[in-house]
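From the pipeline queue, job 12 of 40. The input is one protein chain; the requested action is below.

Action: predict structure.
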Amino acid sequence: MSYLLQAVTRTIKGEQSRAQGKLPAVAYGAGSDVISLDLVNSDFLKLYKQAGDSSLIDLEIDGKNVGKVLVHDIQYNPVKDTPIHVDLRRIDMNKTMQAPVVLKFVGEAPAVKELGGTLVHNVSQVTIECLPKDLVSLLEVNLSGLKTYDDAIKVKDLVLGAGLTVIAPAGDVLVAKVTPAMTEEQMKALEEAGKSADVAKVEVVGQKEKDEAAAAAAAEKK
């Protein structure tokens, strides 16, 4: 699937652009100068929802296609949680690149269906290295091989397409496995342990405040 992002050259500051209802952005990388841009907020949000961080996007500036980019970073308004600035990384199609790729879990683990276990996901995305032409937007993880509680899927077990290499996390890092469902006694013990930890934390904080107050009082008497 191909994606197209249209932009115009920005000649004013980002806050001025936002005041006009536009979404400021910059494009950089691949040996090119940094270019300040304006995007249409709604158009960008719609495209980003489909493309995410791992899909190559054709960037068009002032009506001219300038090559491929990835969405590298988005800054959000802390109150409204809306984008206020976008970083676009330009891609050299002839050089290897690194990008985050989301893991999509498919199928059903027999150890969940037949043994009543609980599926645990430890990794939701990996960083891959490849040529831009080989980049994928996601990697599927088939759970059907998790038949017992001893079975596990690690990073090194991921099925990769041609030209793809996972560079993080390490190969022995656990991606998914099925664990036995906890008994009521285990859940109660875990809950009690959590409460004990919270109480201990409160006591430590309280003692610290008392010590600080005592020190301040002693200093005033000197």
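Job complete. The chain has four helices and 13 strands.
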